[in-house]
Fold these 3 entries.
Entry 1:
Amino acid sequence: MPAAGYPRRIAIFGLGAIGSHLAVKCALAGHRVTAIARGETYKAVADRGITLLAGKTELHAEPVTVRTPTEAEEQDLVVVSIKSTSLTDTLGHELAPMIGASTAVLFIANGIPWWYPHMAVSARSINLPLFRIGERILRDLTPERVLGGVIYSANSVLTPGRVSNNSPDRNRLFFASVGSSADAERTTEELFTTIDFEVVRSANILEQVWRKLLISMCVPPICIAAGATATDIRETPALRALFGNLLREAQEIARAQGHLLGLDIEADALLAGMPDHTPSMIVDYLAGRPIESEATFAAPVALARATCVPTPALDTLFAVVSHRLSVQTRTGSAT
């Protein structure tokens, strides 16, 4: 096994905000980066590379850019940073050209991830399209190759190939092997220690999923339903109270899943610690793009039902958000 810092072959599948950020950092650390993108993003990155604005620093990299995995070489690590709305049950097969005997595949996503039932017995009886897709992905890749990741990094796409990191001092990745592969974990840990990113090999990755959900389950749906911002939630007593109710319900679902998370997490403290950053889900909603509602709303509600956890605030808000999303789908605009 090469020592930490040894140049690796890394593919980034999905050049959104997070994927672009990682592609720049990995390339500047000296790794051989292949970026897989489509449409305007492919053209922009192939022509001009990727620019990352991190605070007052501007970073630039020009990774090898391809449209499909069939154009890429075998990799040491494949980072899949596409949103759950873009997952398909053929994804494992699509990635096959980049997979070698020791390739690790790291999936980074928001909400309840597709690999959740593989690690949580309580979710295996829940019938969600997201989980059915996951079953097929694991059949094609095998769990020993797969790593699940939870990332804290506030990024936004300014234009294709140009990304802003709004948390230059707060970039952290928690990860763990879905199939208990120490080699895959070691490869990923060694890689991330070479870039400007805090990395934690997590002993309980599902708890980290729920910790991030405490924000993503609560803030975006209020913003969508009320046409509000995170600042509005902080400064409006009624919205702050609604956030508190959602937070308590989210914690109850997590506890029913076996994750205590700490009983001292308070709404005001959590809101105060949020960066001044518009969540990607809100950006997608305002732009008329699909949002990760199944992973962020539907899956937690299904888990609550399976464990008999009452969620009146979440149920009401989910109904409102679902209606607004259906209207958006019909009309093509956020109203």
Note: DSSP finds 14 helices and twelve strands in the chain.
Entry 2:
Amino acid sequence: MMGDAFTPYEIGLEELQQELGQQHERLLEFLNYEGQLSANIRQARGDGETPVLSADRNRIVRQLNALALETVQISFNELCGLRRHGPVLTTTMVRLSPPVMLFFNLVVIAIPAFSLKPLTSASLPCVPPLFSASSLAVILLVLFHLAWRYFNPVFKVAGGTVTVTWIALPIKVLASLADALHPWILSDLVLWVSAICLFLAAVILGLTPLSPLPSPPEETVIIQSFSVEYPERAATTVSLEPGDMIEIEADELVLVKVRTLGQVGLCKWSAFNGSLHPAEGCSTLYSAPFDEVYDVLDVLAQSPCKTQNASASLRIEVTPGNQ
């Protein structure tokens, strides 16, 4: 069969497999790339070349270039009979064993997590600060790995240095460190699936109020007293202890506030007979019923994360309006 544009890749695969031999420790990795590239070539020959196939083929060839350089000290491009400095980069990638790579990724998560604790503790007080900061660090690391998989050639060809806290680091050194941290062993599909799972887990566990993790300890909430204001009586205000009784005329509207010790996030009000209208903070507008009855106004004060609460009642005697 006459050769075509894909024949050099097939020649390169045969040459690289021969160079590696049957006992090489990275033979399975090569066979994985070989299967991907062969399937890509078959599809391109059968259905025609497309931008998607071309981009995927370039990715596979980059991985084969790195594998060849690390094992037989010659690029896959050269084994294919192509120029070493072709359009596909042949920079050797630094690779670590999976356990070592995982350890250093955990270190990378831990370092920003401690610096992000003040930010996350202020914005997410009901999630343990270490968990919320670690979740944010995981999301940043996931985004980095996705970006590095597809845009690393841009950085590898760039020169110059990057200054970090008065230390100038060459971009090539930083690229080598990024290569060492990146899970190249994962295919694109597995990388995306893993990234999505880690992203969702980090958001749910550490960055939302729905987190099942226990909330940090909170102050005990104590209801000290009630303040009752009569808008219809020249703004008269009285202070009452929990359990006290107060007289209110039928259909009279009063503003009831609760004074507490400890931080309170929400107050829930209820009444047996009268009606309640919302007001700001731990206060409510209470409207007495028409009939001459007794009523009870209850309040439940809860801490911001709802781990602490306190309840109290105010007894109310409703008198006719003409008395």
Note: Helices lie at 7-20, 27-47, 51-71, 76-79, 98-123, 129-156, 171-181, 188-206.
Entry 3:
Amino acid sequence: MMFALLAALLVQPAALPLHVTGDPAVRIEWRQDFASPGDDWVNDLVALPDGHILAVGFLDRGDGRDWRGFSAFLGADGRLAARHDYGAGGGIDSFWSATAQPNGGIVYAGFTSRLGGSGIDGWAVFADAAGRVTGERAFGGAGYDRFTDLAVAGDETLLIGHSQRPGDDRRRLFAVRLRADGTTRWERIIEGPETIAPLYAEPAPGGGFIIAGGIGDDLLVMKLDEEGREVWRRRIGEAGTNDTNHGLALLPNGRILVVGYSQSWGAQGNDIVAVTLSADGEVLHRAMFGGPGDDRPSLVKADAAGRAWIIGQTTSAGAGRQDALLLRVDARGRFEPGAVLIGTTAEERGTALLPLGDGSVIVAGFSTAPGAGGEDAFVARLSAPTFAEPAAGFSRRDLP
């Protein structure tokens, strides 16, 4: 196996001059930066049983560069306890998500060009609680196959993503369920006359899985049973416009929340949409948030109070060309009035988040401010936002 476990960053970046606006009570309590000569992203943040925060993503993306998946273990105070790079030695290796297993191990999901038949394949990496690799597997065919999320069901893991045949632009749902020992329980492809591109998966109450992604130009929400068979499917959007999924959360009350960016329902360019569904897929509520620019979410996560936190990006407000954007949806599925913007005079994008029990939140993103490379990643803990005062430059509305 070609893995490099490195103790130091490739490049020590200059501290990014990040600032927070939109809520005077919010401050950056700590921050960690990750940088290489190429592009660097954190795609997920996971709370581990031992109290550490796990950040996963990729380093050194770029044409002809050696992309590597990476994970960083952060303490409650933001200090870097350990960092591991995976897949060094050539090609493309990227993590998009991770989860802690009941046995204390960690499973990473993403894609790689080092393993498998040819092209890019879905990639699962198995590690112990400290991030030391115990195994890896590639899944897919000769085309472009990738995993973007995973979900734990008992001691088994569902990997979800898409599969694309050579010469065919359509993407197909690609799901693999693994047993605790890493062997395959089942593998499924669901396709149609147009693209079906899942991005997210959550274990459904009572069994099975909720899947969210895109179908054609619309949002897709789907339920699979324990064996990967389709139970129901919902398509959300208006004809003739583009609606793109970028988040899925299961709420404590059993409802489903999907978020994305939409040009439907009178949007100003791209606005952020939040759609609440019942456990059986009935649409209960739709809400929009946005301004005159381009507003997009990247990820959503629910907290114990039933609220959903959204991280993304905006050009509708802020000091730079694009700022990271933090929002919250209440337990009824309505956007709260306020917003928090994180940025510099350059471009920033929020890519991941993790709400904490005291009302604070850990966010991740990248910045193009002068540093070590093109897009340098950061992880930061923000003090508790209120989201109480209406955000300047934005409007929010509930849809009929």
Note: The CA atoms of residues 23 and 340 lie 6 Å apart.
